[in-house]
Amino acid sequence: MSLLRLLLLVSYYVGTLGTHTEIKRVAEEKVTLPCHHQLGLPEKDTLDIEWLLTDNEGNQKAVITYSSHHVYNNLTEEQKGRVAFASNFLAGDASLQIEPLKPSDEGRYTCKVKNSGRYVWSHVILKVLVRPSKPKCEMEGELTEGSDLTLQCESSSGTEPIVYYWQRIREKEGEDERLPPKSRIDYNNPGRVLLQNLTMSSSGLYQCTAGNEAGKESCVVRVTVQEDAEAPKARLVKPSSSSSGSRSSRSGSSSTRSTANSASRSQRTLSTDAAPQPGLATQAYSLVGPEVRGTEPKKVHHATLTKAETTPSMIPSQSRAFQTV
């Protein structure tokens, strides 16, 4: 092959090596992947444009094409309705626009332009960044003075690496935003921080921020330290021996008095049944005392009953004797 023919062949395939560009964009945003050519005015049925995507697994698929005066942009279900030519591709700008971006759009894009047997290739590496999801703040430990407390913060999704940062939120004038003294950060797990030897001044609002190249999110947790519960504040009252003895004496005296009264009542009842006083109505006492069997009650004469009814001073006297017990 002559040198002249080789030079003509190289010039015929202009831009075979193409260009390489790397672009980073955040998910849900818009991106434009550049592709320019200088192949002159297209002739009829000679201009072809094709965008190809090679994903991170090595699979290749067509994204958008132009051929025979038609644009085909619904070639994949994942990118349907989200891809289009960004400008006038017939005039030399065949850039690709994707909106909104999704993590599945990440990969290596190749733009191929052909016109009248000449080709232009360009390559764009697209990296889609995902913001950290809103982290979840948690506490582990006892909220008492002198105890240790672990604060945990973690995002469930987001582009690595994710950086975590803990700080206090100033709620009052003069409060410090730094963590309390003797706080330790777990460098193997930056989302964990240990608050040692809690004090009442450790109480407050703590914020964890998770961030990466795409952005940041945060969560807060309130720490309320309570006083040490080892020494109860309730006052213990011991029972008094004198008052107890006094109550025992009163109880004993009441018991003795009750026993004595019972005995007295029994004696009085027995003595009343055994020897009724003359001049009293025996029917009034027969209802209280037990019935004596085998003994015929004495007959009461009308004169005696009349005399008993006319003696009102005896019955109240007996009633007062029982009421004083």
Automatic annotation (TrEMBL):
InterPro entries: CLMP, Ig-like_dom, Ig-like_dom_sf, Ig-like_fold, Ig_sub, Ig_sub2, Ig_V-set. Residues 240-266 have a biased composition (Low complexity). Coiled coil: none annotated. It is a single-pass type I membrane protein. Residues 29-116, 135-224 form the Ig-like domain. GO terms for cellular component: bicellular tight junction; cell surface; cytoplasmic microtubule; postsynaptic membrane. GO terms for biological process: digestive tract development; postsynaptic modulation of chemical synaptic transmission. PANTHER family: CXADR-LIKE MEMBRANE PROTEIN. This is CXADR-like membrane protein. The gene is CLMP.
